[in-house]
Design a protein that fits this description.
Low-confidence stretches: none
CATH superfamily of the largest domain: Chorismate lyase-like
Number of helices: 7
Largest sheet: 6 strands, antiparallel
Shape: elongated
CATH topology of the largest domain: Chorismate lyase
CATH class of the largest domain: Alpha Beta
Radius of gyration: 20 Å
Structural class: alpha+beta
Oligomer: single chain
CATH architecture of the largest domain: 3-Layer(aba) Sandwich
Strand order of the largest sheet: 4-5-6-9-8-7
Length: 234
């Protein structure tokens, strides 16, 4: 606990969340007791209790009377501060990632797409739409738009595969951090159909233009995420 500008309970919350996102703690794992955490980080048990209570309220922890505190099973975490593929995120949390291709084809670009990817007017682009799952349960609907430089994706089997692994292998891409926008929206008919939710259900819409470490634009990404199944960490 070195940063005096940040409350100690907040620092402990971050330590625990970092352990989850790094895969050091998985769903169902029991965490250290209040006494053990207090001794390890040289903070009061009141401070520890406050941190654990906050994480429990946010859905990250579950307390079982007489047994202890455990990592909650119901919430999947996604760290959006870096570009980490869906499959990697899910694997880190002990779940089985999956993907079902809805669309993988060439489409006409739009002025918005051309501006986002620095394309010429009326260039064709590749549209990939997939339902993403964790342990075979729909979690998000993923829309990706690529320039024709990535035409090889049309011939790849993208079902139950990490698209980022394919891009790294085929194009030797090293992904950089991308600016993202998050908005709460109501699901439309298509989104509701594939995510098995009522039309108009509140969902998270995460948009970004994904870049590599040299800031070259790779693709446009839009994810419609079930907020009650997937928690974003900023």
């Amino acid at each position: 606990m070195k940063d005096g500008a940040i409350p100690k309970y907040k620092q402990l919350e971050k330590i625990i969340l970092d352990s989850i996102t790094k895969g050091e703690l998985s769903a169902g794992d029991q965490i250290s007791t209040e006494k053990e955490l207090s001794t390890k980080y040289n903070i009061s048990r009141i401070t520890v209790r406050k941190a654990l209570e906050n994480l429990e309220k946010q859905g990250y922890l579950t307390r079982i009377s007489g047994k202890g505190t455990f990592i909650a099973d119901k919430v999947l975490l996604k760290d959006i501060s870096n570009t980490l593929g869906f499959s990697e995120n899910i694997l880190l949390q002990g779940k089985k990632p999956g993907a079902k291709v809805i669309e993988n084809k060439i489409i006409d670009s739009t002025p918005e797409i051309e501006n986002a990817l620095n394309l010429e007017k009326d260039e064709k682009v590749i549209s990939v739409i997939r339902v993403r799952t964790a342990n075979e349960e729909p979690i998000s609907l993923e829309y990706s738009i690529f320039p024709m430089d990535y035409e090889y994706l049309l011939h790849e089997d993208l079902n139950d595969k990490s698209m980022y692994d394919i891009l790294k292998k085929q194009s030797n891409i090293h992904f950089g951090n991308s600016r993202k926008t998050i908005k709460i929206v109501s699901s439309n008919f298509e989104e509701s159909k594939y995510l098995k939710i009522p039309e108009g259900h509140s969902v998270l819409c995460l948009k970004s233009v994904v870049v590599d470490t040299n800031n070259n634009k790779i693709h446009i990404s839009k994810q419609i995420i079930l907020g009650d199944k997937f928690t974003l960490i900023v």
